[in-house]
Write a structure and sequence with these properties.
237 residues; alpha/beta; seven-stranded mixed β-sheet; 33% helix; 15% strand; globular
Length: 237
């Protein structure tokens, strides 16, 4: 993969963050409920309005992969808030956030774990796999990596198929989701609409048992991302 230039975050440490990849995976829905008032304040300050559709599509039990476009730094918190903390999520966030104490303080309790963008981060991929194999949790991934600050129809790099690989190895259903911000870039507090689509059964992703073909990964990634785009299109006027 090509290297990604790291944008300096205020008060970010220059030292790599030592994440505990072997830490126990525990249910922390109670902690989510503690965080809900904080999330409420943060999100209502960020957006003029915030609407959710299709929350009933998020499985109430068992593992699943949730795949969404990425437009705002609060996207992971928005997902947890949208389903009213009924499920325990884990999600990838760029490693630089974890070297910034005031962001890490918010991400870690909500299930965030670091990923080094622009690299084949095996630690992060293994942790993601462990989360799903545990059988109790959802995993949220934003395959675009960086936020789309232009708020255009979400597109995905043709080489971004890591999320499809995770789905293949864990054999879990995939929930497509979209985050749509109104297109007026001059508006400081835009309206936000979040949609959760119907789960895509693992069997519908087209994987051949035992196969490791790249074309199957690319095809599965395309199937998933098309659903994300269809959800986003519902709110584009």
């Amino acid at each position: 993969m090509s290297s990604t230039k790291v944008k300096k975050i205020p008060l970010m440490s220059d030292k790599p963050y030592d994440f505990d990849w072997d830490k126990p995976l525990v249910e922390r829905v109670g902690l989510y409920h503690f965080w809900m008032p904080v999330a409420h304040v943060l999100l209502n300050r960020e957006f003029e309005t915030l609407d959710f559709y299709g929350t009933e599509n998020v499985p109430q039990n068992g593992p699943f992969l949730l795949v969404s476009n990425h437009v705002n730094g609060f996207d992971p918190i928005t997902m947890v808030y949208g389903i009213r903390a009924r499920r325990r999520f884990f999600f990838m966030a760029k490693e630089e956030f974890f070297r910034t104490f005031y962001i890490r303080w918010l991400l870690e309790p909500l299930g965030g774990f670091p990923v080094k963008r622009g690299t084949a981060d095996r630690d992060s991929m293994k942790f993601a796999q462990r989360v799903l194999e545990d059988g109790r949790f959802g995993l949220v991934i934003f395959p675009q990596g960086s936020r789309d600050r232009q708020r255009k129809r979400p597109e995905l790099d043709s080489t971004a198929n890591g999320f499809a690989m995770i789905a293949r190895e864990a054999k879990v259903p995939v929930v497509p989701a979209s985050v749509h911000l109104e297109s007026d870039l001059d508006k400081k507090h835009p309206k936000c609409i979040v949609r959760f689509g119907e789960p895509i059964p693992f069997e519908d992703l087209g994987f051949t048992p035992g196969s490791r073909k790249k074309k199957e990964l690319n095809a599965a990634a395309a199937v998933i991302w098309e659903k994300v785009q269809e959800l986003w299109d519902k709110d584009e006027m």
